[in-house]
Amino acid sequence: MHWHDLRLIVLADDLGATSIARPLHAAGDLLSLADDAIVAVVPAGTDPPHVDNSDPSVVFVSMSPMTETVKEVRGAQILHTIDRETLYVASFPIVTSGVVLSAAAGSSPAPDQLIEILISGRWPVRSLAQDRP
Fold first, then answer.
1. From the DSSP assignment, how many helices (H) and strands (E) are in the chain?
2. Which of 48, 45, 57, 43 lies closest to 11, judged by CA?
3. From residue 33, how far is each of 87, 98, 123 by CA, in Å?
4. What pLDDT score was predicted for residue 33?
5. Where are the domains of the chain?
6. pTM of structure
7. Do residues 50 and 38 touch, judged by C-beta distance below 8 A?
8. Cβ proximity of 51 and 125 under 8 Å
């Protein structure tokens, strides 16, 4: 995935209005957001997600069940299979505040790394409503 595969949608700002979506070209495009804006980063061609009462300090990401078999390994030795019921795959769309995305953009050269940074524990993360809790 590349930045041009994503678009940025301001869901709410100080005026309470939804702005027109715009394509992303690089992580630096996230730096121009207003701190108080609630923003969605979504794959191009998809509808913006809806999150009620968005808390600007919380990141909402799409969380899907893990469908692949995952093994715990040590060196070349397979220790055991990890229970898939405890695993999720985090992906786009992302809904959060402009200040959180701006902070993450400074150290995120690739979209996949943006997800890793946002779910790394620096900010509280919640699943979007349509996905598993």
1. 2, 8
2. 48
3. 32, 5, 18
4. 82
5. 3-131
6. 0.77
7. no
8. no
Please give the structure tokens belonging to residue 102.
């701006």
Report CA 84 to chain centroid distance, whole Å. Answer: 21
Residue 15 has a pLDDT of: 53
Nearest C-alpha neighbor of 117 from the set 129, 106, 130: 106
Residues in the chain: 133
Cβ proximity of 124 and 59 under 8 Å: yes
Burial of 99 (0-12, 13-18, 19+ CB in 10 A): middle
pLDDT at 19: 62
pLDDT tens, residue by residue, 31-66 = 888 888 888 899 988 888 877 766 777 888 888 877
Segments of the chain scoring below 70 in pLDDT:
13-20, 53-54, 129-133
